[in-house]
Structure formats: C-alpha cells, structure tokens
Amino acid sequence: MCLAIPGRVERIEGDKAVVDYGGIRREVDISLVDVKEGEYVIVHAGFAIQVLDEREAKETLKIFEELMENA
Amino acid sequence: MMQLRDKGMAEKILEKIRKINIPLKIMHVCGTHQDTIVKYGIDEMLKEYGIEVIEGPGCPVCVTTPSEILKAVTLAKNGHTIATFGDMVRVPAAGESLQKAKAEGGDVRIVYGIEDAVKMAKHGEVIFIGVGFETTAPSTAITLLRRPENFMVLSCHRYVPPAMDALLGMGEIKLDGIICPGHVSTIIGLKPYRPLSEKYGIPQVVAGFEPLDVLMAVYMIARQVKEGRHEVENEYIRVVKEEGNRKAMEAIEKVFEPAPIKWRGFPVIPDSKMRIREEFAEYDAERVYEDIIGGIENIPEPPGCKCGEVLRGLMHPSECPLFGKTCIPSSPVGPCMVSYEGACNIEYKYRKDVM
Q: Which CATH number does A7-69 carry?
C-alpha cells in the first residue's frame, strides 16, 4: 500500500537516511532520489521514491481554488 | 497534510462537481485510492451526483495469477526460503498458499521491503517474490544492480499502462475518465498515459491520496468531459513531475524488459510483465529453477470467485455472492479479500457493520 504521508529526512549516511514521521523513525534507502536533510520524502517499501515539493504542498489548497476559479 | 481533509474545501469542490451535472463512470487503479474513497465515503457522496468511482486492476497482489502463487508455493515446498510481503502469503491458489506451505514446514518469511530479504540472504539463499507495479519495481531493480549474494527474485512485477490499454480495448466497460495512480505516476511521470487518452478519447488525472486530492481529480475529469477535452492532467503536483523519477526508471530499464503475462481476470497482456533481463539471469528464480516451476501454468481461479469481474470493474464487491459470507478477510476465497489494496478487503473493512 502506498504511504500517502511524507516523512522528514533527519540524517543522511551514504544511500541511507533516517526519516521521521512525526516521532516514528525509519531507515530509508535514498538512492533513487536527490534529497537533502530537512526535506520531505515519499517512501514506498523502504525506498524514498520522490522528494515532496514543499512550496507546492503548502499551496495545494490555493492551487485548487485557482483551478476552480478559472472554470 | 491535514489541510487536504478540509471540510469546507470538500464542499466547495462537490458544489462545482454538482454544477457540472454530468453522470460519469470513473475508474482508478490504486488500492490506496480505494482506501481513501471508501474510508471517507467519497463514492457514496458522488453517487448522489450520478458519479460512480470504481477500482480497476489496481492491486498488485490481486492481479497476480494463481500460477505465479503456485510457483512460489512449489519453491517453498522444495526447501527454498521464500521472502515476500504479508498479504501475498495468504492468497489461495489451487488449494495451496504460502501460509499453508509454511505450516507444513516450508521456510516462508514476511518482509516489509526487499532490503529485509537481502539481509536474510547473508545466512543462505533467499528467493524474494517481487510483487508490485512501477512503484515497487525500482527497489527490486536497485537491489539486483547491487548484485547481492545468495539472492534471487521471482518477478511478478508489472507495468500499469498496458493493463489500462487492455481494459479500455476490451470494451466491456464504458468509462468517462481515469484517475491515474499517484505513486506509479511518481515513477513513470505523465507521458506514458498520453497515448491512452489519444487512442480512447478519455480524460485522465493523476491524483494524490488525501480525500481532497480524489475529489479534485473527479472535478478535473468532470470538467474535461464538459469541455470536450481528453487530456492527461496532474492534480498531485506536490509529488508527481512530468518526467517522473528518471533514476528509478533507469533502474527498471536496466534490470527488466517488457514481456507478455496474464493478469488475474484478464487474458495475456502484451508487454505488461517486468521480466528480469538475461544479464541478471543468475538472480532470476524463474530461470534458475525452471526445472521445478517451469511447467506451472494455467492454474484455475478459485471456484465461485469473482475477483476477475471486480478487477475489470464489472462487479462491485458487495455484488459477489461470496462477499461477507464464505469470503471474509480471515478466510478469503480470492486475493481481493486478502490484500489491503483489494476492493473486497477495503469494502469489508469499512462497511461490514452496515452490510
């Protein structure tokens, strides 16, 4: 099952990172992404598959509003 | 992410959908979308506006065939150590299952991801049953690129777009739009969907997994239908990029090649199997143990099981005569009741009290 919640990269060591999900920490393989400490990642079966675009995430509702206004 | 469960915004989107006022049949192909849809009652809300949202072949464990399950069981019964995800273990095939093989003394281990299986291989040979679409396949590919010792994969990995093509091409079901799977799209990007929109004139929207993501995707499809467009749009822009994840796609392409394979409920779908390339033959359990499992094919589906119809979007789980009676999560007849991504399991989980 796809985990919809992004986790925050706390510490990177080579291909591995410790990712924090609001207090629950997991070791994640980050070899499929280019990520920096402090950024958020989407993780699937132990591998980070994408870095969350924080700006887009914060503005999601605004983007929704805009999309509907243009209808 | 809690903002994406905002009730006021949900009402706003629903109002827009209501105003468009076109009855629609929309399919998605992702168990996590189904979980969001049923958990928050989005399907029931939309029904009032004449919009039906159904799960198609979006559960990797469910579309894996009885023949593939029996191959894994046969390897376990021949003394090989099998590692796989929890729900794979419980899928029945021809009266067998990996769980049963384990009870009879087979070495079957449940893992969270492929890395757990690689760690186990330090102590002896492990065969990992690789199940999953483009989301999961990169982890298998990266692992084989590292050429781990004592390690093999039975690849049940599959590509999603060929199955969508097959389903639309069969013409059994008339769809007005498709909600594309968020995390498959994270890997493959938007491009692979475009030929489908062209060929079948169907709108597609890539969506995230929060309730508002799904509602927004439905709105975007409704709007395309109203405006006579059939494009691939992206609602999940905070995660999905036009080009997808290139590193992950490169890993898949290096390790796997497209091959024909049957999906449960479907005939053989061309180019939909991720077959391990010749270059990695020593890691391919199908090649290495061909003498043991090579002849296992055309194993029938369980008697009375309607998973095939559910996976093709022709039947709602509650319409299956076995649903909630002889088929429940603790004694499932078919994989759609086993897997957390299966439509029957999700329906039972959230609606058993109102049945």
A: 2.30.30.140
